[in-house]
Amino acid sequence: MKTFDYHSPKDVKEASKLSSSKSVFLAGGMTTIPSMKLGLATYKDVINLKGIKKLSGIKVSGKIVKIGATTQHAEVAKSKELKKAIPSLAALAEGIGDPQVRNRGTIGGSIANNDPAADYPSACIALNAVIHTNNRSINAETFFKGMYETSLKSGEIIESIEFEVPSKSNYQKLPNPASRYAVIGVYVARFKGDNVNVAITGAKSCAYLDKNLSDALSKDFSTSSINNVNISSKGINSDIHASANYRANMIKVYAKKAVEAC
Amino acid sequence: MASLVGSRVERKEDKRFLTGKGRYTADINIVNQTYAIFIRSPHARAKIKKIDTSKALKSSGVVDILTGEHIAKDKIGGLIAGWAIRSEDGSEMKCPANPPLAKDNVNFVGDPLAVVLAESLDEAKEAADLVKIDYKILEAVTNLEKTMESDAIHDGIDKNLCYDWLLGDRQKVKEAFDKADKIIKLDITNNRLIPNAMEPRACVIDYNTASEEITCYTTSQNPHLSRLIMSAFGGVAPENKLRVVAPDVGGGFGSKINLYNEEIVCSWASKKIERPIKWVAERTESFLTDTHGRDHITHAELAVTNDGKFLGFKNETIANLGAYARVFGTVTPTYLFGPCATGVYVMPAAYSNVKAVYTNTAPVDAYRGAGRPEATYTIERIVDKAAIELGIDPIEIRMKNFPTEFPFKQTLVHQIDSGDYVAGLNKAKEMSDYDGFVARKKESESRGKLRGIGVTTYFEACGIAPSPVVMMLGCGVGLWESAEVRFNPTGQVTIYTGSHSHGQSHQTTFAQIAADELGVPIENIDIVHGDTDKGTFGMGTYGSRSLTVGGIAIVNACKKIVAKGKRIAAKMLEVSEDEIDFSNGEYVVAKSNKKKTIGEVAFASYLPGVRDEVKSPLPEGDEPGLIESSFFDPANFSFPAGSHIAEVEIDPETGNVKLDKYTAVDDFGTIVNPIIVEGQVHGGLAQGIGQALTENAQYDDTGQLITASYMDYTMPRADNFPEFNLGFTCTKATTNPLGVKGCGEAGAIAAPPTVMNAVINALGGREIDMPATAEKVWEACNEMKKTNSEAA
Ligand SMILES: Cc1cc2nc3c(=O)[nH]c(=O)nc-3n(C[C@H](O)[C@H](O)[C@H](O)COP(=O)(O)OP(=O)(O)OC[C@H]3O[C@@H](n4cnc5c(N)ncnc54)[C@H](O)[C@@H]3O)c2cc1C
Prior knowledge:
Chain A is of the alpha+beta class. Chain A has 3 domains: 5-48, Uridine Diphospho-n-acetylenolpyruvylglucosamine Reductase, domain 2, CATH 3.30.43.10; 55-164, Uridine Diphospho-n-acetylenolpyruvylglucosamine Reductase, domain 3 (2-Layer Sandwich); 168-261, Enolase-like, domain 1 (2-Layer Sandwich). Chain A contains 12 helices and 14 strands. In chain A, the strands form 4 sheets. Chain A has a 5-stranded antiparallel sheet with strand order 4-5-10-6-7. Chain A has a 4-stranded antiparallel sheet with strand order 11-12-13-14, with helices on both faces. Chain A has a 3-stranded parallel sheet with strand order 1-3-2, with no helix packed on it. Chain A is globular. Helix content of chain B is 28%, strand content 23%. Chain B has a 7-stranded mixed sheet, with helices on both faces. The longest helix of chain B is centred in the C-terminal third of the chain and has 28 residues, at 546-573. The chains are: A alpha+beta, B alpha+beta. Flavin-adenine dinucleotide binds at residues 24-32, 49, 69, 73, 96-97, 101, 104-106, 108-110, 112-113, 118-120, 152, 157-158, 180-181 of chain A.
């Protein structure tokens, strides 16, 4: 690992000020540190966000769940309040990586990184999340832009993520047998008024809302309505673990599993 | 004292390992050490046009940068193949030179060509980035099937062919096939694996400028052999000036049998820079440069009668050696593979023909089972296919072809001394509730799942021996083992063994057998291994040889101790030797209460002066002390065998395979410590199941390893396994006094065909290759649905 300067700012303002084109924010470090060790990324400044108290924590108020950016996956997984409000979100966190990763990795780090196979982005999209930064609030659908690409500007810091509590929801993931990231993951959320969101991760450059599945399930919330949806393998990821055709087919299989589990 | 052989003695090494007190190579630091970083080829095949180190040499902390030019100039030799294999036409095998640092050509991604030595690891890495290398990139040869038609990657090695080897009689096989009712044909690949020892390779070299001695701490399964090769072939230093120490080693599975480039380079460089050197592989280097395993393509044919008797067998295999031939690289796909390919069956005629080829991939060598898993996979898959095509139950077809008398002369080489395959298979059948399968299948089907059952019977040949035979077959050394047993004057025992423990628990097993032989409490027995400066020459640990060869050397040395002790005891007790019985550590005069313990005898042997009533306890002609050594060269291999039965449940919607039940019944002869043996079986099964369901090393067309991290190389995990249901039968080996057979590789040998036969059974006979990944299985399920609906 190349040498760098380490900073531990006390508040968001200071953190933002320290940042430059040659800096990185450090949350759980589960992505940043391995890439530095492997020499894939080098930074002049590493700015640790974990010292900023207000960035962490889970708050449920009515139909809104607010999760601080540096909240670890393990905390999300075991939160009693969250398990009551959106059990599928706690279950999603429980299914990320392994205990070590869950004890370090954070929700803010995960969505800022926007790995095409990460779990949280699908939850953000399905649960109509709003991402609050130190400058503005961004809707999930416009936040995730492409492979490892978000609408965050340089120096912009995610402070919290607000999720809408659905009436029913479930997340089903086909894990990559090696890494256990999502080969595909399907998040189904149903809201008052029968509106349904189906968000998919793992299948394309980043998580997205599947309009066809969402529409079909909004009309008729049943596994049989999924049968009639055509999912093309065009534009779907293909790698040594799963072809585009297999992924496209698994989207339907896992969407059904999610509907059944709702 | 009750016998310790056979009892569940807790592992002596557990306290050390579980409390973090193990001492591995990377734990060793030497004052004033430098750090090595190897510069490796990023290309699978290229000519090295120019290496420019000028900028890097000026980088902070750099001590030196050495290249292939330097090592060639110093006439340091390279790595070698340990077995000379002859082709069917009588010609010698062809091996390329494998210099420790490549000078002109690189032949796989990871091939080292220079080493940077610096004051710190970070400085070494920074400097390594500044070394400029001009390559002329050449087209890589990576497709095993097309290797013989591709460019020759090594000068003078036509068709990339190392040898075209035959064992068996083609004419007899042809005659057998002419008489057959049916010929069963099978095409399979045996997927390439990466051993993935938990501890990456490492070495720490300490050169003493005054004594001119090199001490090489290294992650080796056989330090003596490494010293021999480094000295005799590398020319690094004479053997007496070279000490190789393999301290605690965190797993090898065959990948640490070889001496590697890094030990030679660092030993030579340490002498050159007159400083100690430390090198520890990063995980990526392990993936790229540890020797890989398996990687065969096989076409097999089995000639059968309509009632399921086997008449003849053909095995045509292409084996991938990777870029270079290493120590066991050439023997693994020949003598360790070919003979075992006829399995546990009476096979009137057979041959194995193996073409071993070079490709631009990491060298392939022995990996847990080495050749025998590939052989067992071939025969057990084709036997199952025969059962399907003939409509015979898989257990019945096997029973029909078992030998019933032992010793059993197996078709191609082996004279199997003992076994009872019928008893093993019957026990496995019972333990697995084979007859209840139909009901379980129905139950699975009621949930929309497919269920399959798979059977394998195997034998394996391990503890490779005897030396005259293996040397006749091309081995460069004899495969005996040595031991030295030393009594201290105060009665404790230190045993030096040439075997090496890197997970096998020799400290416990070997102490158990010595405790029984000597009648000394196990706490008073220490096992010393892994240091060429301690104890006699040894051949190390691989091929399940430690107990059957190394353990017996200990038994024999103990017997010599007991015999000498008896002569001394007779003198002390003033009786003749034949009036004395030795048991439980005591020399007792028959029909009397006169006795001496072996501890008293040991004490007397070191203090042979006037004592009490005895003038001297030493009989005439005996020297003082109680130390004996033994070199054991067994009369033959040992032949463990067994029957394994697996059940899988497949979700046809996703293709996910769940291994639901696994029963293993093994015959390892006498079992010294059941805890350790069960652990060895579990570990072997995990690796075998990994091969069947998840693991697959893949190179792309340009020779890049695309599974070079745990993000892509699928190691099996605990949740891939069911509770293992283990059973044992016992027929004692007749070729050693304990009746023991090897147990280290059985699981890795039997599991792949057992699991795959179950998967294929669930898929209604549709064949797929390992690993049975979800997508492959899902495709087979879809095909099955299609044929079923067409039929309906
Ligand atoms: C072995 C392993 C297995 C994993 N398995 C899974 C899995 O199954 N599913 C899954 O979804 N993920 C998985 N992950 C990813 C992991 O869960 C983390 O979410 C991810 O690594 C990033 O989170 P982090 O907190 O560690 O971020 P860091 O590595 O600290 O940072 C990552 C990036 O995010 C930026 N960043 C961090 N916090 C903020 C913020 N508040 N505002 C703006 N930018 C920020 C940083 O600048 C950096 O660029 C796995 C990781 C590992 C190592």
